Fold this sequence. Notes:
By secondary structure, this protein is of the alpha/beta class. It is built from nine helices and eight strands. It has two domains: 112 residues, Double Stranded RNA Binding Domain, CATH 3.30.160; 99 residues, Tetratricopeptide repeat domain (Serine Threonine Protein Phosphatase 5, Tetratricopeptide repeat, Alpha Horseshoe), CATH 1.25.40. It has a five-stranded mixed β-sheet with strand order 4-3-5-6-7.
Amino acid sequence: MRIDSGSTQGERGRLARVRRALSTVWIAMGGALVLTACGGKQVLVTVWHPPKIPVPSQVKEIFVEDFLGPEGCAKPLKPKLITKVTESEVYKVAVPPFSEPEETLTIKGTVATCALSMGSGTLNSEVSAWYMGNQVHQEVVNEHTNRPGAPQNEVRDVLVDRVVTRTAKALLPTKRKEIRTFFPVDGDNDTGVAAAGAGNWPLAIEAFGKQIKEKPTEHRAWYNRGIAYEATSQFKAAVKDLQKAIDLKPRAEYVDARARVDQEMQGDKVIENIKKNAE
């Protein structure tokens, strides 16, 4: 039987839209339990990351200039970056002429290419950061997306968000959603894992602690509590529990988690120093 190519393309577009909608719901679930894989339960957690480049310690405010270039792609960049500055919970949005130059970092940008069509698009831009007349950061961001069936405004929003996210990662402490895996001790009735899936970290830590008290050699309970401590930025406690899990059973997942938490602990120190300087 011959299948009409137009119908096939329409069906592909419909399926693509369904996948995007499911992805949005999945992300919006936040700390909800999202997936079962390899005997573990995967949970989305919020993780803070320090900026990739050292921003001058005197900076307390950030001013975002209007981006130059085609208005369709350039205009949305400034308000979205201002939102990222606010979400950083560190810097204030500068309001010239009331801001002090020695306390202000300025972000500038130019959109070189803004090519949008149904289902695909390209956005090429250059972003830089300036302090007291000196350039402290420059980055060329080239983004392309292929989203079958997506209207032009959706394509543009995806590309703009990618540019904003890359700029924020370079200059600001940022929060990101990441997956963490828990290994149930009590199967589907594991209270700690259920609490973690609901984002109730105090209850999860308490439940895993009870398992440890009842079964002190249960490596999964030590690991799970370590991940719960990690999710609440209690990194020293997380390292201690993860190391105990490794001592009991040196699984690759435990070793990787311990190394990740060590990095997060260092990043947390960087963010705390930034906060102190920006006060």
